[in-house]
Amino acid sequence: MDTSAQRTRERFTRFSAILSTSGLRPALADVLSETDYRYIALFRLNGDRASSTIFYDRTQPDVLLAQEVSATASYCAFTRDAKQPFVTANSLADSRLDGHVSRESVRAYCGIPILTPEGEFLGTLCHYDDVPRDPTQVDMALMCEIASALEQGRHVSPSPNEPTLTA
Fold this sequence. Notes:
23% strand; globular; alpha+beta; Beta-Lactamase; 6 strands
């Protein structure tokens, strides 16, 4: 096993231990601590709205949820529509985001879709920030493992109208 795969396995084991003892939010905060991103969140898209069900802000850890926004104002819509990761290091330098409403406020984003085994979109797991960030610091394999574990462990309700099942 190569060192990056070993590191991912170790980080996932650590994530799982924190999840089982302290809950999802502390487990995600620990994942965030491995990066310099400001935020990590689980977002649900319901109709034309995007809302966080789990949220952690390293500068304001007492804030439990991000402000709800229009789904089209969220980069999470890109992960939903493609059912694939969406990454931008600097939104102002990313031509895919020309004209996007959040281009100046959300400068960096690294998101993974959370999908059922049948491919149904449940939500996104994402790191993001209001300043540019190097996305290579995010262990995408770990994010995929976490997204799969969240779906398999039923930590994400199948209905976007219902809250995340474990906080």
